Protein: Hypoxia induced protein region
Organism: Phaeobacter inhibens
Amino acid sequence: MGDPLYILAIAAIAATVIVLVIGIGGFGAGGAFNARNANKMMRLRILFQFLAVVFILGYVYLRSQGGQ
């Protein structure tokens, strides 16, 4: 639980969920916020998803090699 890579993976997952919820909320509400930020929210979500996958794969790889 105290592994820095594990903590980074959880943080990236949480950031992905937060950006996804904000993006869906903005899309549902429409208006100026959605017009201004829809593309930015999608790009941020993709970035955080990529980071989460990299951190998870790194964590799994290192754990399989016996590193803690």
Summary: The chain is about 90% helix and 0% strand. Helices lie at 4-29, 31-64.
